[in-house]
Structure formats: structure tokens, C-alpha cells
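Researcher: I'm preparing a figure for a lab meeting and need a structural model of a single chain. I don't have an experimental structure, so a prediction will have to do for now. The sequence is pasted below. Please return the structure as C-alpha cells so I can convert it later.
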Amino acid sequence: MESALYRTGMGPVAGVDEAGRGACAGPLVIAACVLAPKPHVALARLDDSKKLTERAREELFPEIKRLALSWSVISVEAEEIDRIGIHVANIEGMRRAVAGLETPPGYVLTDGFRVPGLPAPSLPVIGGDAAAACIAAASVLAKVTRDHVMEEMDGTHPGYGFAIHKGYSTPVHMDALDELGPCPEHRMTYANVVAAGLRVEQRAGHTG
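Model: Understood. Here is the structure written out cell by cell.
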């Protein structure tokens, strides 16, 4: 897809993707990435980050940073997500990530939905991380960055298992949330987080 845009003189082409949209704790991380018209052979494995093994993502992460013409990664913290909503946070985060590129893009490919307010023409691509190498690269940058954040968060807020489930609503996470209640990194407007907090308060009231 990028090659067609480059052939028509619309490059550089930036791909944008996020990680953490479906989680109930931790940040939303958005990355933008501009690759060369012919990506380096070291990036031949690029695909949707969710389809790659953790080891493959970790190996590609420094290679993408080294070989990309430009890349940018930003985080939208849980507090801001609660304040403006996940969809607006996603749109705003994609704008910020593109604005952070040192190489101004001539065209932007986004994964899945339209992003108004970008500084260049753009196109939403359904399944974009499997269709465009620049989106796949952004997907890996976002996913690995967020995984590292959640692993660090596991030390700051022990007991929730953030290093394992990365803030998604797994049974292990929900059990810990029911036992401990929300921490400051949880998205406090999410229904499952609100419900868990109420249950903890009710138990405390019964034993107080």
C-alpha cells in the first residue's frame, strides 16, 4: 500500500496504531512510524503485533527504531482517558503521535478508523497492521512500549498481575481487582472497575 502512495509522489507515508484500547488499566499508547519506500530486509517479519510472538516483537522493536525514517510514541494516561473517553483519547493520541514525527508525512495510514485533524491526507485501513508495513511497525512500537510500561507498573502496584495481563480484563485481573480494589492506574470510569470498587467499599463497610 505504501509503495503505491510513494509512486504517486504522496510520501513519506506514516502508519499509526495503538495498544491498550481494550484494557481497563494503564495507558493507551499510540505510535506513528515512517519507513523507507522499500523497508529493510530486517523488517520482513513485520505483521500485526498481536499475531507476532513476544520474542519476535522484542527483536523487531529496536530494529524498527534503528531503520525507520522517523518514529514517535506517545501515551495517554488513565486519568485523561477517564476525562475525555477512550475514543477521543485514541483520536487525540494519533494526532499527537503524528505531530511528534521528525519527518513530516505526505500521507497517513491509520488502523481501522478515520482520524480528523491530521496535518496530511489520511486513509483508515481496516486490518491495516496486516496490510501496510508502516502500520505494522507502529503496532509493534506501541505494543512493546506499553508492555514495558505495564511490567514496570507491576512493581509499583503489586498484586494485580499487570506484568502478566497488561491491564486487560482477564479473570486473574478481575479477581485481583475484586480483592484489592482499583489503583490509580485503573480507568475509573470503566464499569468493571467501578463495580469492583463498590464491592470493596461494601465489604469494608460490613467489617468496619
